[in-house]
Every structure is written in structure tokens, then in C-alpha cells.
Amino acid sequence: MLYRKIEAVIEEHLRGDSEKILLIDGARQVGKTFIIRHVGRRMFENFIEINMVEDSLGERLFSDVRTVEDFYLRLSMTEGNKMREKENTLIFIDEIQAYPGLLTLLKFLSQDGKYTFIASGSLLGVTLSQTTSIPMGSIRKVRMYPLDFEEFLYANGMNEAAVSALWGKFRKKESLDEGLHDKMMDLFRKYLLVGGLPDAVNTFLESRNIQRVREIQSEIHDYYAADASKYDSENKLRIRRVYDMIPSNMENKKKRVVAQSIEGKRGKSFSDYQDEFEYLISAGIALNVQAISNPQFPLSQSQGKNLLKLYLNDVGILSGILYGNNMRAIMDEIRSVNLGSVYETVVASELAAHGNKLYYYDNRVKGEVDYLIDDYESLSAVPIEVKSGKDYTTHSALSAFVSNEDYHVKKAYVLSNEREITTKGKITYLPIYFVMFLGAGSGEENLIIE
Hints:
It contains 18 helices and 14 strands. The chain is an alpha/beta fold. The two termini are 28 Å apart.
């Protein structure tokens, strides 16, 4: 079984005395149902699971539920023998977005206090934005992501002591020896190929067959695109167009979304596609990185620009689209192949999974810096530059950024394939695999709590 950091979060919540209902949000196929089922069956004598998508396609028992009493009555028709006491009964409502009214009902189920509840969904961000009565104060919403690189290391046999030793090296800025560095780079490149979708990771571990891994990634990529037509029929073609453009945008120098290229219409602006962007981001299938030209801590209060970069939520899906079954582009470092978009995608997914809201620096004169994140220890913004080639010390925009006294920069990072950790002024050069320790929640939780 794959180790997931969120397991400890779920267990802690269910053991605690919070009256809030835990709501696990996240894209399709990131492992939500599996991990909830695993924890629930282990902790509760009576584990009840109801999938609302399956119900909506079948008997529709819960389609018109409006009251707590009616919910219990419908549930008792199939699970009455398991409905005991709160302490030993967990009711898991899966794919709750199929019936948006149940999200409102969670408040009253929580207040009733008769049983313990947990819920999950694949498009909760979208559904909640369209729900007229959001049960604020009654739910704790946690976003789940694909496996991050640390979890991938555990899946490949690394133990907690080894990861702890790596963390110590990172904190002390001590370089790994060549043997360990080569091992970490080998695992990192495999992560670029496989990504963090549980089905893809398990298939890789069982078969080491890249073609089978790619088939799973392609299928899930198609699922993500198809979801748009289910939940937003009015804008589904434009959502699909924006989503399909993400890999090609990553190959452009600027990498940002160009509004006029979405439908090939002049005069279109960023605001014309706000709903489409919001869908992809809320659904968890795309990660957004917002432009900032005058960064100040906290970055959420900085003046933003109407510029946006979108990244796929899983690096394995991207590398499959770009390189197919050919592993040499990544594993053999073919010089003619630019891995910049793949490296930037894995850094975006790592930083997001560690709890960071993502920004990038955009200045017409001074250029761009790949990522900006908040550092709550130093109360300053941290710029991060990602380099996939040999020229990792060339970064004029980053150099100008850290030297600008108005930005109050305390530290900055350049991530590359280089083994040795060095610091020059405010800039620290790190091996790319140490991205696993960057960010607000790195080393603690693979989630965002909202």
C-alpha cells in the first residue's frame, strides 16, 4: 500500500473532538476514496460507504434528500444494520458533488451528532462555488494531491530514517556524495516519467512497464477533459480548449496563457475566460501561477497582473504527452531535448502540495522569475528559479530581484541538476530533488487546508 501523508490528517481529525465534518477535495484518481476507506475500516467497527455518483446513475435514493431524518431513512434501507453509535460508526459520503444539496445538509448532520461523518469529491471547488448555502463553520475542507516526490521515495523503498537524513542535509546545506546524488537523480527522473497518480505509481512498481504507465496516464487525462462536459455544458468546449493548450503553452518561452490564442479571436482578454480558468483550477486538474510585478509579503496582498500560467496537476501526464513511451529524453539527459517545462511542472506541483499559493515575478524590463512563495519564518517572499540545463548560474532576472531593496528578500533558491549546494549572497543553489523540502508545509502535510 502506498504511504500518503494525508492518512495522518484524516486519523487525527477522526480521533479528535471537532464537530466539523472532514471534506476531502481533489482531482479524480488522486487516491481520496482509497485512503478514506483504509483509515475508516481500520478505526471504526461499522464503516458505511455510499457513492453518490453511483446512486445518481442507479436508484437515486439520495437525489431529493432535504432533511437529516430523510437522509437517515434512505441510508437505513441499505445499511441499517451498521448504523450504531457515533463512536463506532463512520459514514463516508463519496463523490458528494453529484448532489450539491448534500453539501448544505452536512451542516445539519454535523449538528445532529448522531454519527461520525467524512466526505469526499472530485469537483468540490466547482460545486461549492455554485452552492447557494455553503455550510461554513461545519466542514473542514482539505485538498489532496497526487503523490509528491517524498511519497514517491517511500513507494520505492526509502524509509523514514533516510528521508530524515536528507532533511538534515538540506537544513545544513550539505551536499550529498556523488553516489547518493546519482541515486536521488535517478529516482527524480523516474518520478518525472511516472508522476504521482496512484494507479500509475502502482503499475510502475509492479511492472516497470512504461507503456502500461502511459496508458493509465492517458486515460486519466481523458477523464479530466471529459469532466468539463459533465459539470459545465455551456463552456465545455472552451474549457477543453484551455486544458488541451497547457502542454503547448509550457513549450513557449513565456509559458503563460494567451487569451487571444484560445479561440483564435482578436480582442479577447483574460477576463473573457475567467470561468474556464476557475473551473480547471477548482477541479484540481490544473495549477495556477499568478503574475506579480511588485511583490511584497504576504504575496496575496501584492498587486497582481492579469497574467496567468497553468500547469498540469501531474508531471507524469505531461511527460507522457511530450515524450510518449520514449524514456531516453528524461532518463538519458538528451541534450537536444529541453526539459524546462517538465521541471517547472514538477516544482509547481511540489510547492502546491506543500501548501503554497503560487506566484511568479513578471517585469517587462527586468524579466521573469519562475516562482514566488511566502516564507512565514522570515516574513518575506522567496523567489525560486528552476534550471534544467547546464547554465544554472545564469539568471539575470533573479539577480535583479534579490538586489532590489524594496522587495526585502532574505533568501532565494535556484534548483538544478548540480550536485553541490552553494550559496552566493542571498541565492542558494540546490539539487532539484530538494524541492521536496521547500514550502509552507513541506515535510508535514501533503495538502491545503481551507
